[in-house]
Write a structure and sequence with these properties.
Layout lengths: L2 H32 L7 E2 L5 E2 L2 E7 L7 E8 L4 E2 L2 E2 L4 E14 L5 E4 L3 E4 L5 E5 L5 E8 L6 E2 L5 H5 L4
Antiparallel strand pairs: 1-3, 2-5, 3-4, 4-11, 6-12, 7-8, 7-9, 7-10, 7-11
Length: 163
Amino acid sequence: MNLKKITILCATGIMAISCGQQIKQEKTEQDKTNDPIFAKGVKITNDNFTGTAYLNNLVTADSVNQNAVGSVTFEPGARTKWHSHPAGQIILALDGVGYYQEEGKDKVIVRKGEVVKCPIDVPHWHGASADSAFVQVAITGREKGETVWYKPVTDEEYNREPK
């Protein structure tokens, strides 16, 4: 093989390696922005949700710390039933667009980075918007008892315009 052919092969190989690394770096940066903070968890199969939602239990309440912490991923249109918490709840929106509504109040939009404080014993529901998934971390006090579940959120309630 002559020197010219070797030079061309080496240059081609270097360009291919360089391009491959560039593509890999770009993909890695893109993947970082799409990676969830917590794993999705397991599909929720009880009847306290409408649609498809997943739960990753991050902290289980015990006698020392009576707060339960879970990451919930709601697919578009998924939501909880109306429910209340004897010790209240805090929702941290991690990704997507969701809804939150307290009994007797208008439904509101919840976006990534927002925090919702659910008052003690106030019936409410929360979930994803119709066209976006929604990921939240729920911090629920358990020192005064378990979540109380009520009726499902009707399609009419869910589809009302948020305020």
